[in-house]
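Record passed on underneath.
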Amino acid sequence: MMKKTILSIMAMLSLGLQGYADVSGINVGYCNGEVSTSGNIASSEKDVWISAAIYIPAGTIATYGGNSIDSIRAGLASKLNVDTLTVWVRSELDGDNIAEGRITPDSEVKIAKGWNVVGLETPYDIPEDGSGGLYIGYSFHQKGASFGLSTLSVPTPGGLYVKMPGEEWADRGSEGTLCVEGLVYGDRLPSVNLALTDVSLQKRYAIQKGTLTVSGSVKNLATVTVSGFDVIVDAEGGTGPCAAHVDANLSYNETMDFSVTVEPGITDEGDGVSEATVTIGNIAEGADEDPSDNMLSGSFEVVTHDFTRNIIVEEFTTEQCPNCPRVAAYINDALESGQYDGRVFVACHHSGYYTDWLTASFATDYLWFYNAGGSTYAPAMMIDRYNFSGSTPVMCPTSQGEMEAYWNARLAEPAYVSMEVEAAVDEADNNKVRVTVSGAKSIDAICDNPRITVYLLEDGISARSQAGASGSFTHNHVVRACNSTWGDAIEWTGDDYVYSCEFVLSSQWERDNLQAVAFIYNYDDEDATACEVANAGGIRYADFENAVADGITAAEADATETAAYYTLSGDRVAEGSLRSGIYIVKSAGKCRKVVVK
């Protein structure tokens, strides 16, 4: 995500001709109309002056040629110990004021925390050609220690110059943005001026898909309402600039978000990283009068392909929880709709609000995900152990719609590791089931420390005494067994992996209601918010002994036929052409996996 603060426009206006606004003033600055009342730049000295400014380049100033800077809006994070505030315009940081205004202890208007609008004693008339860049700033005198400077924590080139007592001017634009704006008045204000304020490029571009999604924001800085514009993307390694049109109804001072998908034509992975510039242009209402703020750039990773993402939903629930039946209904209704078949796998841990007779030995260990083992509650859930809230991956959706919105957001994200889950009951020992998980990765590092977890789940368990339930209640997705509480490390053969584990089946479990669910996640025992799942998969008991690779039908095999080798995607490969990797071997009516090293 890239950020770029822009010239903000805030002024009194009234409706004029259709598509226009009768703008009486335009505020020129980088803080986008925001002011901070929490200071982080301070001096404890007494009887000193502190100064700060922003730089507006010549190209932007020229846009306002023929108008005048009438006043300056200066933000103060605190007025404590500040007795004089001087606003000014300069052509050089350490030069003389070419226009100024002030608030003193004797002024009728008093210094305020937040915005202070100070008129210039003599307005600064901007030459028609702009005549170079300008510094717009303010200085204040403090009687004692003060946190007067108001800044935003958004780095902006030219957005923050500071002069502390006894020091030279320092460019601190990499630290933030000064809350100051120069108010421009006149009858020659710009009519067409869009600014690209924010851009987000798709993190990874998959060559096999060929599409790149670009999202961002634009703001109308001029008087004409914009009805449309183009987003032009020029990606390194592509066939050239490609564009997508955005329809708009963007009035003066309004901001709108956009998202477009383009086909940059990248066909070579190269070094894996590509640069791209994003430009807004071809504005329907005419040429942009200040194109200097129309472009942002960034980078994204190029991979040959990605995989479809499935998700694991882990619910925290117990029979002592009176609200748990409500969230259980959300989950069951969503799954019964059919839209999440084979894409969403649910595992229920009976912990979080006390425990019950279905609590597995490892279920309470997962309470660590609640603020690293802090206070817990139920009902609650983790969706791919993804950190939606900012402090913990554990959450409680307030409705089925909200829950499905989170599910859909994760399902829309591509995965960079595949997962196929197979299971078979041991023919010699009918009380054992062996689960095999295999797949491949399309990037070297799918996460910092990948581990694989396998659950054995059971549906259709009658509750003994479920709080909050009227009548009978059935527990589904109950985690009966786990390969390892925190998963096992993955052994890779090139980009491929095969993992197996074994479970003993209890006679108390209803076998037809069992399923095996597996997922790969990032193991981090110090940060509960850094354990995101890379992909998930599962298989139901009815398919345990019939699980075969996609594209291969074991039933077609003849007992006398020679062995046939297939890739994981179902393509047949001659035995003499096998390379390192994982293959499905079909022979004598059966399928099995082999690893060729």
